[in-house]
Design brief:
It contains 19 helices and ten strands. It has helices at about 5-10, 15-25, 40-55, 85-105, 120-130, 145-150, 150-160, 165-175, 200-215, 235-250, 290-300, 310-330, 335-355, 360-370, 375-380, 385-390, 395-400, 400-405, 410-420; strands spanning about 65-70, 75-80, 135-140, 180, 185, 220-225, 225-230, 265, 275-280, 280-285.
């Protein structure tokens, strides 16, 4: 593609229409101007030509992104930036044109934010290397990666492929557009905000330099966005690689390595993209304990008796969570985990149903209706304590797994086994 036509390809009717449709599909919150995605079409119809002309003559000025902080598991917060829907559309339009150019340049072992690439593929590639004898892992943690990208370095890397000054100027304007924190605008002298449509591509572009440096050194590695592990054959090699690659990242890419979180370890000691690894004849992936603990916490939140919604709705939300979790971790050995998830979910769901039955008389009537003898039903109906009664054999029979499935409750084990067959 000729460089002189890049900006016009970005501003073409088809490309902008596709960008608009993607922004609408993504929905998302309003930016600092308060405009919702539903109002975007009328705004673009009215102002589209003026926006395009301002981009051509380099007078377009993106608005600051809105700062949103998302709590993390460790108690810290992840900073996200929400651009306006107009800026999201333009960023998406730029990404759509630049992505095919850079896809030809990206390394095969880069799996994040790329078409037909996934985290599961990254994990399986790592397992492949482990089984070839590369079973010492160098796990390098980039400290606040999206917040520490050096703008000049990024633009200089972009300039190797993109010679159109208008595009480079537009990208820099997005990088330095600022962040709205409360009512104050803070300058963004470095970093690329997480949340922007262009940020994932820019992240891959700068980290592609690392990929090819590792390739030049003959190292086996796998990268998903800023999560990169390098696989070597000995502890001595791992220490040497940790030191030399850290030096390269900090001196050449001007990024910061978190030395406290970066580590060297065997596969079973590593958590990568939610997985860890075990060896039975050969290395295989499985869900890390932290990943299991996380879904257990979420299941308990969705099955709390205090949540005043229907049990059918609870079953729907639980099933959505289980389906998504199993789809992600199904490449690993998680059958024992699915047994545990089913046991927790069913037990807690029985307590939700027991609460909905409310009175002892209503409970007695429902138990008898479901085939429990009058004596056993009476003993259960007048028993105090949800946890105690819902372990009762009569309750488990009355609220059998088959009956629970009629609420729409998905069995994690059955769904996992179905995924294995398919």
């Amino acid at each position: 593609m000729k460089q002189s036509t890049l900006i016009e390809n970005i501003l073409s009717k088809d490309n902008l229409n596709n960008a608009y449709l993607q922004v609408v599909r993504n929905k998302g919150a309003a930016g600092v101007d308060g405009m919702e995605y539903k109002a975007l079409l009328s705004h673009l119809r009215k102002n589209g030509e003026q926006i395009k002309e301002s981009i051509r003559n380099q007078t377009y000025k993106p608005m600051p992104v809105k700062r949103v902080e998302i709590p993390k598991e460790d108690g810290s917060k992840r900073k996200l930036g929400i651009p306006t829907v107009t800026d999201r559309t333009i960023q998406q339009a730029v990404a759509q044109v630049l992505t095919p150019i850079y896809e030809e340049k990206f390394h095969d072992n880069s799996y994040g934010f790329r078409p037909q690439k996934s985290a599961q593929q990254a994990v399986l590639k790592a397992v492949e290397y482990m089984n070839e004898g590369y079973n010492w892992i160098v796990d390098i943690d980039l400290e606040k990666f999206f917040d520490t990208v050096n703008h000049d370095k990024l633009i200089s890397i972009l300039n190797k492929e993109i010679k159109d000054g208008k595009i480079l100027s537009l990208i820099r304007k997005f990088l330095v557009s600022g962040v709205m924190v409360g009512t104050q605008v803070e300058e963004t002298e470095m970093g690329t905000p997480q949340g922007g449509n262009l940020s994932p591509l820019l992240a891959n572009i700068i980290l592609n330099e690392l990929d090819w440096e590792l390739e030049r050194r003959g190292l086996r590695f796998v990268r998903y966005a800023d999560d990169c592990i390098i696989l070597v054959k000995s502890r001595k090699a791992a220490k040497r690689v940790m030191e030399s690659v850290t030096r390269y990242i900090e001196t050449k890419l001007l990024l910061k390595v978190n030395r406290q979180k970066s580590k060297i370890g065997r596969p079973k000691e590593i958590k990568y993209l939610g997985f860890t690894f075990y060896k039975y004849k050969e290395y295989k992936p499985k869900a890390h304990k932290k990943s299991v603990d996380k879904i257990v916490r979420k299941l308990k939140m969705l099955t709390t008796r205090k949540w005043g919604v229907s049990n059918v709705y609870k079953a729907k939300k639980v099933s959505e969570l289980i389906r998504g979790w199993v789809n992600y971790f199904k490449i690993g050995n998680i059958r024992r985990v699915t047994w545990r998830l089913d046991a927790i979910t069913r037990y807690r769901f029985r307590m939700c149903i027991w609460k909905h039955w409310k009175t002892p008389r209503n409970r007695l009537r429902n138990l008898i209706k479901r085939g429990i003898s009058k004596g056993n039903a009476a003993r259960a109906a007048w028993t105090h304590g949800y946890a105690r009664v819902c372990r009762n054999e009569s309750i488990c029979f009355a609220m059998s797994n088959a009956r629970l499935s009629k609420f729409g409750l998905l069995s994690a084990e059955e769904y996992f086994m179905k995924c294995q067959v398919n």
